[in-house]
Task: inverse folding
């Protein structure tokens, strides 16, 4: 767009005076330049109008663009506000979610810590149960061994100890615990020692003493020997009183009766006077009514010896058996078979009594104590 130079009034021709006469016939020298000036000013006006129209058009376009921009900015602002509101709501939801998540996380951590504590407690309980099973086994075996020792001391037999150790060995084998192997070895050594040990047969000894107590009433005393011999001769059959002489033939009945009567009278005459050596006069001078007390006294000595055997007081039992032997040899017939049998029973009872103590299971008890201590 070309710019028109502004009109300079200094270069314009001088205007004619108003009262100057115009000549219609001949134009003045300045009359030809007036239309040219008028056309030039119109062109300027057109140009200015075009420029104004262009400026107006450009202004309208700019205004339209500004309106569009404003509308777009308004929409963006509205969208931004909605997004901000949505963002705030989402922020509040996120904050609430964070708080909820934090609360749940704290609860989960508490539960995890509780579960961990329960797990540790459960592991400790399982370990304690595993240990307590072995400890209970050790305690049961120790109790059984000590009870067997008491039974062995009361009965004087090794059977309770042997049975208790065999049962303990079987239980340890079923448990299959390596730390109980020393206990098993100690039990094996104690079993070997028990099998080699010899103790008093208390049951057999008590049976012999009971049998001897029952035989006391049948033992013959020394002052009843002559009466017993005479009664034996009178009650013996005729063929047991001696064989007849070989040169004696068959006698008549009256002669045989006379011979038997003569033998009876002869034996009675011989029994009236009996010469014997008396080493213990008090046995011969014992009254018949005192025989009952003598037998009861002997029974009491034997029963005292039996109680001593039961109480494991072998010295006292041997003393009672020695007193019973002395009374048997002093007041009863030593030639009688029952007296000799009773004397042999007393000697066997005294010989079977041993003062040896029962074997102790110290090695097994020590191994059990070590296993109970956990070493």
Result:
């Amino acid at each position: 767009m070309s710019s028109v130079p502004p009109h300079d009034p200094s270069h314009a021709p001088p205007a004619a005076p108003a009262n100057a006469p115009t000549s219609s016939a001949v134009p003045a020298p300045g009359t030809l330049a007036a239309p040219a000036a008028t056309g030039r000013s119109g062109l300027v006006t057109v140009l200015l109008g075009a420029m104004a129209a262009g400026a107006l058009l450009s202004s309208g376009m700019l205004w339209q663009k500004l309106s569009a921009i404003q509308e777009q900015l308004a929409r963006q602002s509205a969208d931004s506000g909605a997004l901000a509101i949505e963002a705030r709501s989402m922020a509040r939801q996120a904050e609430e979610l964070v708080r909820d998540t934090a609360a749940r996380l704290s609860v989960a951590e508490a539960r995890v810590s509780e579960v961990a504590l329960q797990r540790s407690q459960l592991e400790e309980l399982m370990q304690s149960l595993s240990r307590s099973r072995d400890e209970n086994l050790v305690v049961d075996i120790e109790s059984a061994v000590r009870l067997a020792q008491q039974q062995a001391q009361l009965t004087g037999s090794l059977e309770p100890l042997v049975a208790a150790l065999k049962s303990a060995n079987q239980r340890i084998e079923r448990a299959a615990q390596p730390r109980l192997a020393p206990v098993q070895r100690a039990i094996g050594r104690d079993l070997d020692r028990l099998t080699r040990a010899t103790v008093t047969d208390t049951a057999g000894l008590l049976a012999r003493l009971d049998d001897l107590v029952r035989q006391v009433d049948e033992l013959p005393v020394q002052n009843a020997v002559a009466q017993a011999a005479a009664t034996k001769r009178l009650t013996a059959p005729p063929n047991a009183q001696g064989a007849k002489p070989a040169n004696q033939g068959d006698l008549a009945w009256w002669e045989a009766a006379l011979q038997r009567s003569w033998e009876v009278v002869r034996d009675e005459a011989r029994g009236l006077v009996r010469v014997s050596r008396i080493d213990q006069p008090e046995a011969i001078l014992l009254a018949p009514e005192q025989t009952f007390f003598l037998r009861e006294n002997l029974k009491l000595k034997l029963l005292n010896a039996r109680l001593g055997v039961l109480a494991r007081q072998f010295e006292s039992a041997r003393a009672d058996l020695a007193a019973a032997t002395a009374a048997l040899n002093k007041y009863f017939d030593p030639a009688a078979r029952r007296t000799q049998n009773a004397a042999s029973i007393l000697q066997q009872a005294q010989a079977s009594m041993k003062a040896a103590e029962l074997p102790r299971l110290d090695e097994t008890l020590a191994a059990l104590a070590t296993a109970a201590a956990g070493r």
Observations:
- Residues 1-32, 225-249 have pLDDT under 50 and may be disordered.
- The radius of gyration is 75 Å.
